[in-house]
Each structure stands twice: as structure tokens, then as C-alpha cells.
Amino acid sequence: MVAVQLRSCTKQSVQVRQHAFAFWLLTLFHCLSAPGDVEAVKKIEARLLHPKINDSIDEATGDTALIVASRLGRVEMVKLLLELKSDIEKANSYNSTALAAAAAAGETETVKLLIEQKAKIESLDKEKSTPLMAAARFGQTGAIEALLDAKANAEHREELFGDTALLMAAYNEAGPAVQLLVERGANVQAKTFKGADVYDVSKGSSVVREAVEEGGKRFAPILRSLTTLSISGLRLRSLSVDERRAEKEAAAKAKAELDKAGKTLGVPSDGFAERAPDER
Asked: Is residue 57 a contact partner of residue 23, using CB atoms and an 8 Å limit?
């Protein structure tokens, strides 16, 4: 059993390539430890990493142990590193944090954990890209969903081309990611600094076009409901009692449709109401 675990851990150590021996040994001890040996692992980790837990372990990338563990999706390792006071916002040489690394790698559970531990949702790398954009660039739908649930801004633009998360997903023809972003209200009309829209950046990709159309079908009922609710709120003060009653009934119906659509997408309806004015 130990031999099997050792082979697995050795293979994983190859993935982290030339990271420091201390982290390799740390990973090895963690892999070989039985579930009941958590305290022993903590002592080993504390001895190996403290007080330089936030130091870079890769000169080429500037990655910290937390960034590497997050990228590999080692949830238990991430938990232990955070317990040992690893800096959750410590960035590498690209100014990318553990959250961005996990998002780009599609490690959804790690993304959720880091969000729970108060990682900055809108942290910016050297190109001013966010973790949501990192997930969108690689089509990581699970990470995208988790970040949007945490109120990540889908309309933020990076400074190199003016891309949004949707434009990045479209550029890489990540159909499922494009559809998800459109369903969640991303602005399909957004354009790069040079005026290229979602269809232009994807060079007319049929995958992207179908994803946008499918996402739009699911978002349409939500948009209609939001429009009805907004109009109702504006008109109520100028109406008679009977007209107000009828307007409130229409608004209640629209709210019900919004709730239904939100459940279908797995998103709270108040999340749509809160995001819509700023992001559309």
C-alpha cells in the first residue's frame, strides 16, 4: 500500500518539477500519512516551513507552497498551509494568487475553500486579470460558477486587450464557459479596445455562436422579469390604488418567474437583481 502511495506521490512531485526539496518532502509525508496522523503531519509541516512559509519555492515562477498546492487541488494541504498562517494573498512573479491558480486549473473545491477563507475575489495579476478571467480563459466552468456565486465581477476588463471574462472564453472557444457566463448575465455586447465583440474574437466560431444563443435563451426570462420589476417600481408612485394593486400583482408574477429561472440556473434571484444594474 505504501509503495502505491509512494509512486503516486513521486508522480505528483514531478508535476511540481523543480520546487524546493522541503515542499517535496512535505508532500510526501502528507501523502503517506494515515487519516489519523494529521497532528503528526502538522508538526512535520511546521518544522519544514515555519517561519519561511510564504517564501517562494520556485525561482522561475515565484510560486509559494500555497499557490502550488492550490493549483494541484490539494485541498487538505491548502487547509493545513492556511492553518500554519500561509499568506492567502501572497502572489507569484506574475502577481497571480492562490485563488487565481486554482481557478485557472479548474480546482473548484480549492476555489471554494479559498473563497471561504476570504481570498480576494478581484485580485489582479500583471495584466489586471481577475481569478474569474483566469477560469474563463481555460474554460473552467466549476470555478466560474463558484466565483460568480461569490459576486465576482464578470464585466471587469484586463488592460492588455480590454477583454472581459466572456471575451476570453470566446477567444479560446470554450463553449460551456461562454454559455455559463451568458446565462449568468455577462454582457454579450462587450467589445475589446479595438472594437471586437464575442463573435469577432472567436473568428465566427460556431461553437461560440451556439453557446451564446443557448445561454441567451436561458437568461431571457430573467432579463424580462428584471425589466418588469424595474418598470413596476418606477410607476407605482404615480398610479391610483387599483392601478397599484394590478401593478403589484404583475410584479409578483414577474418575481415568481425570476425565482423559477434562478432555481433552474442554480442562482438566487436576488443575486440577479443585485448584479443586473451594474453589469448590463
From this structure: yes
**Can you tell me the distance from the alpha carbon of 113 to that of 146, in angstroms, rounded to the nearest whole number?**
10
Residue 189 C-alpha cell reads as 455586447
Do the beta carbons of residue 146 and residue 112 sit within 8 Å? yes
- CA 244 to CA 221: how far, in whole Å? 23
Q: Helix, strand, or coil here: 260?
A: helix
CA distance 273 to 275: 6
Which ranges constitute the DSSP H helices of the chain?
A: 2-15, 21-32, 38-49, 65-72, 75-83, 98-105, 108-116, 131-137, 141-149, 165-171, 175-183, 198-201, 206-235, 241-265, 269-279
Amino acid at 84: L
**CA distances (Å), 244 to each of 114, 168, 247, 256, in order?**
46, 45, 5, 18
In this model, does residue 21 exceed pLDDT 70? no
Q: How far apart are CA 230 and CA 226, in angstroms?
A: 6
Mean pLDDT, residues 64-71 taken together: 90
Cβ pair 272, 262 in contact under 8 A = yes
Cell (9 digits) for 10: 513521486
Mean pLDDT computed over every residue of the chain: 75
pTM over 0.85: no
Residues 180-198, buried b or exposed e (16+ Cβ, 10 A)?
bbbbbbbbbebbbeeebeb
**How open is the CA angle 220-222-226, to the nearest 5 degrees?**
115
Of 204-218, 227-241, 257-271, least confident by mean pLDDT is: 227-241
Please tell me the distance from the alpha carbon of residue 279 to that of residue 153, in angstroms, as a whole number: 8
